[in-house]
Design goal:
Elements (H helix, E strand, L loop, with lengths): L3 E3 L22 E3 L7 E3 L5 E2 L12 E3 L11 H6 L7 H9 L2 H11 L2 E3 L5 E7 L5 E7 L18 E3 H4 L25 E4 L2 H10 L4 E4 L8 H4 L6 E4 L6 H12 L4 E4 L15 H9 L5 H5 L5 E4 L2 E4 H12 L2 H9 L14
Helix pairs in contact: 3-5, 5-8
C-alpha cells in the first residue's frame, strides 16, 4: 500500500465540530483531506492523527505541519509611502479633514500608494510583531471616497503579492491596524469591517483604537486572538449585526470582552451595507446640523475666523444652558488636555 500523506483541507468549515467537542464555526479546527475527525485544532492546540493499521506494516503516516506565514519586505512600506498627490483616497481625506489629521492618519496606518492603477491606495496589514502580512490594493473615487468600479461593476481590488507574482507566498491575514496595540495597552479597540472606515473613524473618534477585519468573514477567532485581552466594541456594517453578535457571544465564552454596537441597525434611513464612516461623512455635509457638533462629527468647527476644538464646541454648547460653567472654568483655571485655554465663542 502506498504511503499516505496527510494534507490539511482548505475547506475547514465543512466540519462542524472539533474532536474536542468545540464548535468549528470560526474554522479553528482544520481537518485533514478525507477525514472529519482528524486534524489540528487551533482552539485546544491538539493534533488528532489517524491510527495506523498494525496489520499493514507498509503503511506509514506522514505529517505535514501547517506552513509558516509569508511576509512582505517592510522596506516596501517606506517605498510606497509617498506620491500622495496621486493617491485618490488620501486626496479624499484632505477634502474632508485638516491636513495635520490626514498626515497623522497616513503615519498611523502606514497608508501607501500603488502604481497598479492610477490613484490606487495600499492598506498594509502589519501584525503585533511588526510583520507585514498583506498589502491590499484598492482604488477610490477622489470626490466621493467610494470604491471605483469598472464597466462590469466590479471594484478595483488587488494585492501586493499578486502584482509581484509571489507564487509561493503563504498568506495569513491579520487585523488592519493590529500593530497599534504595541503603542497603547489601555484604549478600547473599536472594530469595523473596512480599512477605509477604520482610518476615517480614527480621525472622528480618536479616543478609540480603530481596527478593521478587512471583510465581514474576518470577524473570527483567528483574527481577533491577538486582541483578546482588550475591551472591544464591534461596529458591523448594517445587515451583519446578527452574525457578528452570534460570533461575539461564542468568543466571549473563550474569554473575550466584545460588545457589538447595534446603533445603526434599527435605522431605516440607512441601506444594507452602510458603515459607520458613511454616516459620519454624511453629517459632515450638513454644517448647520447641531447633532453634528454635539456628537463630534467634525474634528474642528469653524466660527468666523476662530477655529475651535471639539472640547470648546461642547463647552460652549453646555454653557448656553448653564452660564455658570464659565465661572467654574475661570475660578479653577481649567484647560484642555494639552493645557490650552478653553475659549468662549460669541
Amino acid at each position: 500500500m502506498e504511503n499516505e500523506v496527510l494534507k490539511f483541507d482548505r475547506n475547514r468549515n465543512r466540519v462542524k465540530y472539533c474532536p474536542c467537542n468545540k464548535k468549528n464555526r470560526d474554522g479553528k479546527f482544520v481537518p485533514y483531506v478525507g477525514y472529519d475527525n482528524k486534524g489540528f485544532c487551533h482552539s485546544c492546540g491538539e493534533t488528532f492523527l489517524p491510527e495506523l493499521d498494525k496489520t499493514d506494516y507498509k503503511r506509514e503516516m506522514k505529517f505535514e505541519p501547517p506552513k509558516l506565514s509569508s511576509y512582505h519586505d517592510p522596506k516596501l512600506i517606506s517605498r510606497c509611502g509617498r506620491n500622495f498627490r496621486e493617491n485618490n483616497f488620501v486626496q479624499f481625506l484632505k477634502s474632508v479633514f485638516r491636513p495635520d489629521d490626514v498626515k497623522q492618519a497616513i503615519l498611523t496606518y502606514c497608508i501607501g500608494t500603488s502604481k497598479h492603477w492610477a490613484g490606487a491606495n495600499i492598506f498594509w496589514q502589519i501584525d503585533h510583531k511588526n510583520n507585514v502580512q498583506h498589502g491590499k490594493i484598492m482604488l477610490y473615487d477622489t470626490e466621493t471616497g467610494k470604491r471605483s468600479k469598472n464597466q462590469e461593476g466590479k471594484a478595483y481590488i488587488s494585492s501586493v503579492r499578486s502584482i509581484q507574482r509571489l507564487k509561493d507566498f503563504n498568506l495569513k491575514q491579520c487585523l488592519f491596524g493590529l500593530h497599534l496595540i504595541n503603542e497603547n495597552k489601555t484604549r478600547t479597540i473599536a472594530l469595523v469591517e473596512g480599512e477605509k472606515t477604520a482610518i476615517i473613524m480614527s480621525i472622528f473618534k480618536p479616543e478609540y483604537l480603530w481596527m478593521a477585519t478587512g471583510s465581514k468573514g474576518g470577524f473570527k477567532y483567528e483574527m481577533l486572538k491577538p486582541i483578546k485581552d482588550f475591551n472591544i466594541i464591534a461596529f458591523p456594517d448594517k445587515g451583519e449585526i446578527y452574525e457578528w453578535k452570534s460570533t461575539a457571544m461564542e468568543l466571549n465564552g473563550f474569554g473575550f470582552r466584545i460588545t457589538v454596537n447595534d446603533w445603526m441597525e434599527g435605522r431605516a434611513e440607512y441601506s444594507k451595507g452602510t458603515d459607520l464612516a458613511d454616516v459620519y461623512l454624511d453629517e459632515v455635509k450638513k454644517p448647520q446640523s447641531p447633532e453634528a457638533v454635539a456628537t463630534h462629527y467634525k474634528p474642528l468647527t469653524e466660527t468666523g475666523t476662530t477655529v475651535i476644538s471639539n472640547l470648546e464646541s461642547n463647552v460652549n454648547r453646555m454653557a448656553q444652558r448653564n452660564p455658570n460653567l464659565w465661572l467654574l472654568i475661570d475660578k479653577f483655571g481649567l484647560t484642555d488636555g494639552d493645557g490650552n485655554e478653553i475659549r468662549k465663542v460669541s
